[in-house]
Amino acid sequence: MLLEEYVSLRPYNTFGLDVTARYFARFASADALRELLQRPEVQAANKLILGGGSNLLFTQDFAGVVLKNEIQGLEIINETTDSQTALVRAGAGEGWHGLVEFALENNLNGLENLSLIPGTVGAAPLQNIGAYGAELRDTFERLEAVEISSGELRVFGAAECGFGYRESVFKTTLKNQFVVAAVVLRLHRLARPNVRYGAIADTLAELGIAGEPTPADVSRAVMHIRRSKLPDPAQIGNAGSFFKNPEISQSQYNALKAQHPDLLGYPVPGGAVKVPAGWLIERAGFKGLRRGAGAGTHGVHDRQALVLVHHGGATGGEIAALARDIIVGVSQQFGIELHPEVNIL
């Protein structure tokens, strides 16, 4: 299989940063991946499995080998006799939103709140993607992954994945040990869509959708919200939400709420409260901030403070420095520590 040398990763990361990979190869099947993993150059090098590049911030060239996952396939593999649920298997290299569209086209719901999330199917379980009151684990059945050290295919159920808020074992104890080949989700035909979170209900009304919305209606509303708030990476380099929404104690939330009545909070299991990182960043004075001169500018999006943007010519190190300044600023003002959702390399 073709193993390229000194390849620019600019087309493969949504920040549009022009860094170089020492080696670069693509694979479209588990067998092709195994073949690559047996190459001496690959065995001896640090490895980065690349999907859509929508959750990465490169601060330097990558001295190892970048393996781009292009495993395709979307299919319904099993359906209950009453046709109320079905298992859908998706290749890890498929675009995530393409899977959402496939589900809707087959009258299966459960993914509509996750519409238009960038990236690939294989990246979704690594950080348990979520948006608008839904997470991947809500529909997750299992995944198939290739062990890098042995080439063996292993199946992981939900409990083995250790899903948390933007977390899984593939980001912690099993980090860099497995490559996701396929994901299987259990989707539904009759369950009502979730419209309780965020601005979905208001957006449905704005779009003229009355009565009981369909999953397609909810998907349309979610896409409308995302497009109104989040910049298109094709126009402005970004990786979507850069920080996780922090969880704080109920007492800390009550104290902040007394000082800032407009602060929203969402109860989470265990008694903590999740607060919007975007609100904290905006109130700390970073929203719309722009650094650099001429073409080498970067900053914080002027409509969504949760998004760091690259206008062109800046380095990943400069964007990472801005992220650190935001963390310090929010901590000093609110006593809350933000944590990046984006992987910084």
Structural write-up:
There is one protein chain. The model has no long low-confidence stretch (mean pLDDT 90). This protein has a 5-stranded antiparallel β-sheet. It has a 4-stranded mixed β-sheet with strand order 1-2-5-3. The protein has a 4-stranded antiparallel β-sheet with strand order 13-19-18-17, covered by helices on one side. With 345 residues, the chain is an alpha+beta fold. It contains 9 helices and 20 strands. The radius of gyration is 21 Å and the shape is globular. It folds into 3 domains: 66 residues, Uridine Diphospho-n-acetylenolpyruvylglucosamine Reductase, domain 2, CATH 3.30.43.10; 115 residues, 2-Layer Sandwich (Uridine Diphospho-n-acetylenolpyruvylglucosamine Reductase, domain 3), CATH 3.30.465.10; 108 residues, Alpha-Beta Complex (Uridine Diphospho-n-acetylenolpyruvylglucosamine Reductase, domain 1), CATH 3.90.78.10.
- Stretches where pLDDT is under 50 for at least 5 consecutive residues are none
Fraction in helix: 10-25%
Total domain units: 3
Query: DSSP helix count?
Result: 9
Structural class: alpha+beta
Q: What gap, in angstroms, lies between the N and C termini?
A: 26 Å
CATH topology group of the largest domain: Uridine Diphospho-n-acetylenolpyruvylglucosamine Reductase, domain 3
Shape: globular
Task: Please name the defining characteristics of this protein.
345 residues; Uridine Diphospho-n-acetylenolpyruvylglucosamine Reductase, domain 1; 4-stranded mixed β-sheet; Uridine Diphospho-n-acetylenolpyruvylglucosamine Reductase, domain 3; Uridine Diphospho-n-acetylenolpyruvylglucosamine Reductase, domain 2; 27% strand; single chain; alpha+beta
